[in-house]
Every structure is written in C-alpha cells, then in structure tokens.
Write a structure and sequence with these properties.
Largest sheet: none
Oligomer: single chain
Shape: flat
Structural class: mainly alpha
Radius of gyration: 15 Å
Strand content: under 5%
Order of helices and strands: HHH
Number of strands: 0
C-alpha cells in the first residue's frame, strides 16, 4: 500500500502516479487480449485526468464529469482494432 503525505507540493504528483499504476493494472486485468503498452498508458492517463477533474469538481462544488460514460468511451477506444492507414 502506498501512503501519501497529507500536504506538500508532491502530493498531487504522487496521487497521479498511484492512480496511473492502478488504472493500468485494471485495464490489463479487464482486457480480453494483451494491450499495446502505449495505448494502455494513454487510456489510463485520460481516465485518471477525468477522475482528478471529478474530485476537484466535488471539492469546489462544480459540475462533475460522468465517470461511467468516460470509462465506456476510453475502454471502447482502447479495445478498438487499429485499421491500417
């Protein structure tokens, strides 16, 4: 288990790193096939950014994104077969 400091300039960076690691692991575990590493990292980064936006929205009483819809879009794009150019 990773413990985050309660304050300090590196807290958001540490949180981001932990969320990226966990999200990539979940994507790998949930995928029916081996994922391309670069696409998986990009998909995880997109989802983590939306999660952090949602957390900020709650903190500042703003409009929150729909995490379920975001997950569907990101996973669909990740699993879409690449077509040759």
């Amino acid at each position: 288990m990773v413990r985050l400091r309660t304050a300090g300039p590196g807290r958001a960076r540490a949180l981001y790193a932990v969320l990226m690691e966990l999200t990539e692991a979940v994507l790998d575990a949930a995928s029916p096939r081996k994922l391309d590493r670069d696409r998986r990292t990009a998909a995880a980064g997109t989802f983590v950014a939306v999660m952090m936006h949602e957390a900020n929205s709650q903190r500042f009483d703003g409009l929150a994104p729909d995490l379920g819809s975001t997950a569907e879009i990101v996973s669909g794009a990740l699993l879409a077969l690449e077509t040759p150019a």
